[in-house]
Amino acid sequence: MEFALLGWPDAGPTLRLDFREFSYAGKFVMSNTGKAVARDPGGPRAAPPRVDADIDRPDPGSEGDPFERDVVAAAAFNEDRTDPGVLWIRYITTRHDRRGEGIGARLAAFVAERAAERGYRRCRIAVNNPFAYHALYKAGFVFTGRETGLAELVLERPGQRDAATYQCGLDTFRTDEDRDLSDDERAFLDRHEGDAAPDLVGVPNEEAPATTPGTTARPTSPSPDRRPSTFKPARRLRDPWATRISATWPRSRRSPSTRSRAASSPSTRTTGSTATSRRR
Questions:
Q1: Tell me: the pLDDT tens digits for 88-127?
Q2: Rounded to whole angstroms, how far apart are CA atoms 26 and 23?
Q3: 256 by DSSP, 3-state: which?
Q4: d(Cα 265, Cα 278) in Å, to the nearest integer?
């Protein structure tokens, strides 16, 4: 498995993923976010699933195939709109036949580590289901006690990892009556009631760029003591609405009307080790 940072947001990297294999594939064609990927060129792969509107397409890996076929997971990220010391991971997606292997958690840890080396003070992500929450804890993210306007839980790295904080986020899923949790999600919450924070996954190393004889590879990111040219001293500002993490893990099945209510009138209160949402 190879992990690579394709570029930071200012470089405008793009990535073409097959929408039949990856959730939110269209978001990775956009050039306003940085991109990182996990590749497994020699790994197993299943045929892309058929969709209702499917048409004849080039065979995967053929000369006419427009998609990146060695990618098994991808992440998109950009800088906080008001605090340039914070990087948000906007989307993480894993290929349909490689989900459940922990690749998404390792890729999130990889991005957070590269962000720290570049000089970002914090890396944040917002999730809307307990599976994603648990996986991000494995990547070193912790619950901040805050939610976005879409009722997504905000996690960040670095942070204090303890059982109370971990359970605080799970309790938010358990007690929020507006969340239409699936049976699998409820069973997951029951199994992990009272548990400590899960063990951390290892942070992957970035593969060195290929070089030709007589040339020297250029690093894909600056040395750890260099910060982005736009870096400013951190200030305490409100968090922007984070974009939903992709269906690397199952999405919460919330009705459009419920999401609309959550987006129109959020009010979050944090008390001690519990966080509850009150809506008008």
A1: 999 999 999 999 999 999 999 999 999 999 999 999 999 9
A2: 8
A3: helix
A4: 9
pLDDT per position as a tens digit, 64-86: 556 777 899 999 999 999 999 99
Question: What is the domain class of 2-44+65-207+238-277 according to CATH?
Answer: alpha beta
Quick check: 274 and 171 in contact, CB under 8 A? yes
> Rounded to whole angstroms, how far apart are CA atoms 109 and 168?
22
Q: Where are the alpha helices (DSSP H) in the chain?
A: 103-118, 130-138, 163-175, 183-191, 256-264
What's the CA gap between 62 and 69, in Å, rounded? 10
| Helix/strand/coil percent split, the chain, to 5 | 25, 20, 55
Cβ-count burial of 279 within 10 angstroms (0-12 exposed, 13-18 middle, 19+ buried)? Answer: middle
Based on C-alpha coordinates, what's the Rg of the chain?
Answer: 19
Model pLDDT for residues 249-260, shown as the tens digit of each residue? 444 444 444 444
pTM comes to 0.71
So where are the chain's domains? 2-44+65-207+238-277
How many whole angstroms separate alpha carbon 84 and alpha carbon 87? 7
Residues 6+ apart with CB under 8 A from 171: 274, 275
User: Within 13 Å of residue 58, how many CA atoms lie on the same side as its CB?
Assistant: 11
